[in-house]
Write a structure and sequence with these properties.
single chain, Rossmann fold, alpha/beta, seven-stranded mixed sheet, 8 helices
Length: about 230
C-alpha cells in the first residue's frame, strides 16, 4: 500500500521541486536574480517571470516554428525579462513586439533590453486591448508564431479575442498566472474576485475553443499553452 501522505505537494516540497528543476535546466539563474533585483530597486512590482518560466518561454518560442519563431507578440512587458527569454527562441530573422501600459515599466524594459544587447525587441507603449487590433492591421492576419499574455488578468478574455486573428495555424498561445490571481488560487476560490473570475473565464474559453488545443502546466501560478489548429 502506498502512503498517500508521501504524495502530497506541500509548500516546502513545491519550493524544493522548483529549486531542483532550476538547478538542472536553468543555467543562467544568477542573471535572472540580478535582473529581478534591479527591477525591484527601480520600484517595479515583484511579479516578473522567474528562471523556470523563462526557460519554458524560450523553449516554446523555438518550437513554435521550425528554426525558431519569426514573430512573437507579448502583452505585458514589465521589466523585459520575459521578452528577453522569448528572444532566445527567435529564428535568425525573428522579432518580438511587446506591449506595456506603464511608461515607467516600458522605459526600464528598454534599458534592460539594450544592456542585454538585444535589438530584435520592439517595446510598444499602450493598452493591450487597444494595440492588439492595430497590430493585426500592421502585421497581418496569421502572422504571429507565439502570443504571450502576462498583463492585466481581468483583460485576458479580451486579449484572447483581440489576439487570435494574429495567430497562424500551428502557432502557440501562452498565458501566465492562469491558476493564481489576486489573493488566492483559482481552484480553491473563484468567488467574485474579478481577476479570478476573468482568469477562470479565459481558461474555459481556451478549453472550449475548437481552434485551440492546450493545457495548463502547474508551475508557479500556472502556465497555459495552447496550439492553434
Amino acid at each position: 500500500m502506498v502512503d498517500s501522505s508521501s504524495e502530497g505537494m506541500t509548500q516546502q516540497r513545491w519550493e524544493r521541486t522548483h529549486q531542483y528543476i532550476d538547478q538542472l535546466f536553468c543555467d543562467d539563474t544568477e542573471r535572472w536574480d540580478r535582473e529581478h533585483e534591479a527591477s525591484m530597486e527601480a520600484g517595479l512590482p515583484a511579479i516578473s517571470v522567474g528562471a523556470g518560466v523563462g526557460r519554458w518561454l524560450s523553449l516554446l518560442a523555438s518550437l513554435s516554428r521550425s528554426g525558431g519563431a519569426n514573430l512573437i507578440v507579448e502583452v505585458g512587458t514589465l521589466g523585459g525579462a520575459s521578452a528577453l527569454a522569448l528572444a532566445q527562441g527567435l529564428g535568425a530573422d525573428g522579432r518580438i513586439v511587446t506591449i506595456e501600459a506603464s511608461d515607467e515599466h516600458a522605459d526600464f524594459a528598454r534599458k534592460s533590453i539594450e544592456r542585454a544587447g538585444e535589438s530584435r525587441i520592439d517595446v510598444r507603449l499602450g493598452e493591450g486591448l487597444e494595440l492588439l487590433p492595430r497590430l493585426v492591421e500592421e502585421l497581418g492576419v496569421g502572422s504571429c508564431d507565439l502570443l504571450f499574455l502576462d498583463a492585466i488578468k481581468t483583460e485576458y478574455p479580451g486579449y484572447l479575442e483581440a489576439g487570435m486573428p494574429l495567430m497562424r495555424s500551428g502557432g502557440l498561445v501562452v498565458a501566465d498566472n492562469v491558476l493564481g490571481a489576486g489573493e488566492g488560487w483559482i481552484p480553491d476560490a473563484i468567488d467574485g474576485e474579478p481577476s479570478r473570475v476573468a482568469i477562470d473565464r479565459f481558461n474555459r474559453m481556451v478549453s472550449a475553443d475548437p481552434r485551440l488545443q492546450g493545457t495548463i502546466l502547474p508551475m508557479r501560478q500556472g502556465l497555459l499553452v495552447a496550439r492553434v489548429l
